[in-house]
Each structure stands twice: as C-alpha cells, then as structure tokens.
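Good morning C.,

I know you're traveling, so I'll keep this short. The sequence:
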Amino acid sequence: MNAPAHAQPPARRALRREQLSEEVAAHLRTAITSGQLRPGTFIRLDETAASLGVSITPVREALLTLRGEGMVQLEPHRGHVVLPLSQGDIEDIFWLQATIAKELAASAVEHITDEQIEALVALNDDLARAVDAADVDAVLNAEFAFHRAFNRSAERIKLAWFLLHATRYTPSLVYAADPVWGAEAVAHHTKLIEALRERAVDAVVELAEWQFTDGARRLTDMLKNSGMWD
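The tokens, ready to paste straight into the viewer:
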C-alpha cells in the first residue's frame, strides 16, 4: 500500500521537529537574556506553543535544552521557571565570545585575501542600507553575513563554529533594533576593513574585541535600566 502523497518520511519529520525545537529554544533564550522573561517567571507549555504557532513537543524539547544550559529549572508540579541571570553571567558570556573572536581575528589577518576584503566592503554596504531603511530583519541578516565571512576568512572552521554557538546567548534583536548601534556597527566595520587592508594585527584584534565589550556594556545598561537587578 502506498503512503499518502503528503506523508513525510520519519527522518524528515524528525529533522523538522529538531529545527522547530532549536527555533523555540533560540526564541526563549533571547527573551531570557534580553530581560523579557524575568527570573522567577514560569514558562507555560501551552501558552508558549500557542504564541509561537507550534505544538507542545518542540517547546518541551526546547525547555530541556535550556535546562541543560542553566537558563531554566523544572519545579515539580509547577513547570519550568526562569533562573536568575546576573551581571557576572553577562560578563562571562561576552568574555568567552571576545576571547574566541580575538583568536579568529589574528588568523584572519594572516589568511584573508584582497577579494575577501572587498566582499566585506559589499556586506558592510548591505548593512548600511538596512540600517538606513530601519529594516531590523535585514540588519540582522547583514550583520550575521559580515561576521560569518570575516570569521571564515581565518580558516579556523572549528573555532568559528564555537564562536557561532557562543553567540547564541547574545540577544541580537536588541542591537539590530537600535539605529544608534546600527550606525556605529557600520563605522566599526569600516575601521576593521581598513585595518585588514593594512594587515595591522593589533588593530584588527582590538577592533574585534571592542565589538563584544561594547555589546556587554549595552546589554548590561539595558538590563540595569529595566530594573532587572533591583
């Protein structure tokens, strides 16, 4: 008997469910690190599933992931509750990102080609246009594309992969929605490109580190002003 034309193979269904759970985890992770979900807040399976337009299963799997990351805790008979996020946690997250980024930056100076530098110029132009248009999604995509190209030029694929996963704990939407940050990001990228052209290792490393120290400061200030740590 033939399967219905619309039926999906088990492997494809499992892959789609895994993608959904990752997307839900990313959404909740951003909500926690940006202070939208405060410590002590209970995350309801049915409410979260309904708000995201998914079934309960990927939400349950996402919460299991976040439990492993120490972002939520399961309280018997009550559900998953958001754990405290301290200023020290923010500092640790960005310290790790900056440490990896500096290694990649130093390697990028050694390996990047003139063609790759010109590609960064084009990507930075894309970011500038997105910032001017106040298109948050386009800003997110352009910023990601710029740093992916820069990190890949270092030819240290595993290290770039570690940085990609470390940046999951950065609420990128907070920055992308800020036009002041957007303009400064474009200017910062321009300086980085010029330092790469000059093969100035110290300057490139310093500029790479600045991105994360600036990100930590902005997020810390935002959370303080929101009363997160009152």
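Safe travels,
E.
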